[in-house]
Design a protein that fits this description.
alpha/beta; four-stranded parallel β-sheet
């Protein structure tokens, strides 16, 4: 008998059928945002989320993501959300402000509302890094959103 045989273990569950997922995409660095969105939506479909159960909203930049994520979370219409965007380092401190504040805002919304939010806001040194990472990050965000929504349901039953 194993050490944890008598302990409830909730395993990762990527079954997305019946899940309602909202995606919020920053239009700044739009090519990368579109790549993230495409990969995320494709992965959600592969996991069983129906097109009719997905919603997409866009915002001007990464700092605007938290407000719309909060609005969607408070609507009660979604099981999980995904934040999509890209902040590329420039020559000023602005990169750090946008990166840090967007991430903090996304985390705050998740904790305030109790709704899982997958953070797929890339923070990269240059365009090449962003383009190289966008498809994988979009897929990973879809998986994280579904896994967390399923985990939350399993733990609150």
């Amino acid at each position: 008998m194993g050490r944890f045989d008598d302990i409830l273990e909730v395993e990762a569950n990527l079954a997305g059928a019946g899940m309602r997922v909202g995606m919020v995409m920053s239009r700044f660095n739009g090519d990368v945002g579109e790549g993230l969105l495409s990969a995320c939506a494709d992965e959600l479909k592969r996991l069983g989320v129906a097109n009719a159960d997905m919603a997409i909203a866009t915002v001007p930049g990464a700092l605007e993501l938290p407000l719309i994520l909060q609005t969607m979370a408070e609507s009660g219409r979604f099981d999980a959300l995904v934040a999509l965007g890209c902040v590329i380092r420039g020559e000023t401190y602005h990169f750090e402000i946008v990166s840090n504040e967007a991430a903090a805002g996304i985390t705050a919304v998740q904790l305030k509302t109790g709704l899982p939010i997958a953070n797929a806001v890339l923070t990269t040194e240059d365009d090449d890094q962003a383009l190289a990472r966008m498809a994988q990050k979009g897929r990973e965000a879809a998986q994280a959103a579904i896994e967390m929504a399923n985990l939350k349901k399993a733990l609150t039953r």
